[in-house]
Amino acid sequence: MRKLYCLIAFILIVLLILPTIFSDYILGIFVMIFFYAYLGQCWNILTGYAGPISLGHSLYVGIGAYISTKLAMDFGIPPWIGMWIGGTGAALVGMSIGFLGFRFGLRGIYFVLLTIAFAEIGRLIALHLKPLGHMMGLFIDFKPGWTNFHFRGNLPYYYIGLGYVVFSLIVVRALEVSKWGRYFVALREDEDAAESLGINVFKYKMIAIGISSFMTALGGTFYANYIFYLHPTSVMSMWVSIEIIMRPIIGGIGTLFGPLIGSLLLTPLSEIARSYFTKAGLEGIHIVIYGLLLVVAVLFFPGGIFAFLKKILKPLMGDSKEI
Amino acid sequence: MIIEPSYILQLTVSGFLMGGVYSLIALGLSLIFGVMKVINFAHGAMLVWGMYISLTIMRLTGIDPFFSFVASAAGLFIIGYFIQRIVVNRIMTFHESMQVIAMVGVMMILENMAQIIWGPDPHSPHTKYSLSTVWLGGVMIDVPRLLAFWIAILIATLVFLFLKYTDLGKSIRASADNRTGALLVGTDVNKVYSACFGIGAACVGVAGALLVPLIPTSPHVGFPFKLTSFCIVILGGMGSLPGAMIGGLMIGVAESLGTIFIPSSLKQVISFSIMVLILLLRPRGLFGGKGS
Question: Mutation test of the interface with chain B: which of A120, A266, A282, choosing the one with the most B Cβ atoms within 10 A?
């Protein structure tokens, strides 16, 4: 394990130094890598560790983005404070959905459809709310400065994004070795068996969805202050949820590094494909290729890429089964 | 607010007729789910292919979508058959989230292939009867809608008869009821699965052709229909075919009547709310047999 921690520290130092040699464009790609790795990790807490499959995480991204942005625009509260309020709001919504779903015993595909339904209802309502810019969307005034969370260039976002990823890795690692995390995995593996051993299934699922939706909303604040434009179709549609779940699934669901590895692979690929094929005048082809990759990845690496990397990393970890 | 009874009747009728097309889309989804236990996230993209096949035939030969739906059905049967053979057959035992990702991948491929082939712009072809209407006791009925409704009901009836009386249909029903049992008595499950996915896809292909005169055809138009058909399938009961039919008509009427109170761009909120209520109170749906 110690060797592995050394490797992680080394990678982290490399990532801290990297911006000095990379151009702004590549830093922008890294910002998106970190952003999706972070959101994937948040989703991973709920689905990868505790089990209930959510396809409605865009709802929490939207809640976090809109609450922190509206607080900043109308009341002058910096996003750094507003993000925690947004997170609390998202956690309340997430736990309400969780309460309904878990109390009524929805599992598998039924819970998936419940989360889709709530996310779509949220998107449609946001689309019709005047304070959120109605159909036009919400433009955020650019006011550079640390307190406003607005910066010129990608460099500050790179470090903030990296901070987000490190934060999520620490949270998930802390969960993995804690009692809660063990209970989560027990729920995922066999809910009935876990319950018969005296684990309060409902309580631990609620904790999982609470943490997951809270952290997802923090990512929403980052998105709002990076893009400067919010529209329910771009932050709350089902596409956002699909983008969120792709990376951890390709990387390795229910693993600490799965979301990050998945994002390192998929995000640059989608960016390169997009810029290359849009230039060639073949719009849509990049999504076809992206779709093909997803199908191939699911068919040939059903355990995720991380399962393969694990074998390579084995000498570093010894016989430890901690990871 | 005073609402004329004739206005309500008008909305009910037009919603009911649209519900016929919804029913056919949901029938395909329910058939696929009932047998393969996989949610077909590519259902909306298949609908779009059905629309474009019939639109292209209309452009090239002038044959009306209300006849060329046969070609859409055949085309979609082939697409469905190969999706089952290449993708779905291998992911049936996977974790549900993996299945979702694979089907989303198929959806992205189909939807954007349509965009590459036919371009991103919407098309609304003109037919002789596009704007023609008939009056029935104070209610105005669009002819295309009425035709679409009856063809949808006809095709659905044919699917029911096929499942009830043919050998292949019986094998499909047997595999839906009890996969292991069907295997034990020597059913060629691969053939049954491919045929079943093909028929489900053909249903949605017909629905696509019927929609051509009603809504503009564009590559991304299938998405809301897919979400609505999820609601219908939950309302009627996952895997229940009569449930899909009746659920489709109910959702059609509910969405149409909802436009009295809320803007029509919000009408999907009604179907989603119905879905949430059904999920919580009766997850097996109104017509689902076994609890799930």
Answer: A120
